[in-house]
Amino acid sequence: MKIYFANALFSQADFAFNAQLVARLRQASPALDIYLPQENAAINDKNAYADAKMIAQADTEKVRAADLMIAILDGPTIDVGVATEIGVAYALHIPILGLYTDSRRLGATNQQKLSALQQVAENQFHYLNLYTVGLIKLNGAVYTDQEALIDAVLKRV
User: Fold this and answer.
1) I need a surface site. Which of 32, 35, 50, 64 has the fewest CB within 10 A?
2) Domain boundaries in the chain?
3) pLDDT tens column, 51-101
């Protein structure tokens, strides 16, 4: 099964997280052929040069070849590149599994947090763009921890 792994890749934290989760997936099933964009030095070695068309063509080719997309939704907002990749995958009817681990999603039954929503600038919860999340949910699912995501991937192998 070919998987496209979509996440930001510009900070050391993102780079390490991506490598760690992809290593776990590869270890869980050798049948997985995972494209991790940060491993494609031709377009993502930031000491070198790749223009916008080169990046768009290379990554779109890999999305088109995928049987499944994993999209990381964490961050202040969904990474704009990830959101674009989600749109392409959705348009091509490629199933998408999202991972959303942000701790601010917790506390939905906490009355103080719910009441705070009535006050200006006191939202205690994190917001994800509903259009982008909707594309995922129309053709996949969103998980809140790595183990559940890995299990979902393995059920598709």
Assistant:
1) 64
2) 2-156
3) 999 999 999 999 999 999 999 999 999 999 999 999 999 999 999 999 999
Distance (Å, rounded) from C-alpha 62 to C-alpha 76?
26
With 0-12 CB in 10 A as exposed, 13-18 as middle and 19+ as buried, what is 87? middle
List CB contacts of 107: < 8 A, sequence separation 6 or more.
113, 124, 125
Collapse the DSSP code of 64 into the 3-class scheme (helix H, G, I; strand E, B; otherwise coil) and give the result.
Answer: helix
Q: For the residues of 74-133, what is the DSSP string, one character each? A: -SSS--HHHHHHHHHHHHTT--EEEE---GGG--TT-HHHHHHTTSTT---S----HHHH
**Is the entire prediction scored with pTM above 0.85?**
yes
* Residue 122 C-beta-side C-alpha neighbours within 13 Å: 9
Which whole-number Å values give the CA distances from 26 to 36, 111, 146, 152, in the listed order? 11, 42, 13, 14
What does DSSP assign to residue 144? S
- CATH number 3.30.70.100 is the correct assignment for the domain at 2-156: no
